Amino acid sequence: MTQFILSTYVDGMGNQVLLACGMAAGPLFTVAYLLEGACRVGYRPFRHPVSSLALGRAGWAQTANFLFAGLLSLIFAAGLWRIGPSLWGALLIGAWAVGLLGAGAFRTDPVSGYPPGPPDQLQRHTRAGALHDLFSLIGFLALTVACFVFALSNSTGWTIYSIASGALFATTMALASAAFDQHQRWVDLGGLLQRVSLTIGWTWQTLLAVRILYT
Fold it and tell me: pTM value?
C-alpha cells in the first residue's frame, strides 16, 4: 500500500514537472531574444525577425534559444499526452515544439537588411533557409490549431480566450510574413508584428499549462 501511494505521488510530481516546462518555455524564450536584440549592432527589433538573431558570430545564442524552447515545449507535450484533456492537442503542441527545434537546427536567410550587406530579400532561398521557413510554418500552424482544439472547454471564458488567441496569433503572423516578403505597407513593422504574434502564442501556452496544472 505504501509503495502504491509513493508511486502515485512520484507520478504526480513527474506530471507537474512536465507541465511546468510548458509554463517556463515562453517567458524564457522571450527574455532571451529581447536581450539579444538589444545588444546586437544594426539589429532593429521593429523591422527584423527574431530568427535573424541566429545569424552572425553571436548567432549561437538564438539557436540555443530555439532549441531549448523547443525541448521544453516537447516535454510539455509529453505531459499533456499523459494527463491533458486532448490527445490531439498534445500532438499539436508536439508539432509546435518540432517546429521550434527545426527553426533552431536550420538558420534563416538574411532578410529586411539584416545582417547588413545582402539584399532585403534573396532571389533564391538557401537550403537551410527554406527548411527554417518550413519548420517555422509547421510550428505556427500547429499552435494555431491547438488554440482551437483546447478551446473545447466547460469554461466560456477560456473558450473565448483560446479562439481569440488562435485567430490573433495567425493574423499577426501572416502580417509579419508579408512584411518579411517586403510588402511596403508592413516591411518596417515586421519584427514588431512577429513579436506581438509570439507573445500571444507563448502567453496562451503558459496559461494552458497553468490551467491544467492548477485546476
Answer: 0.92
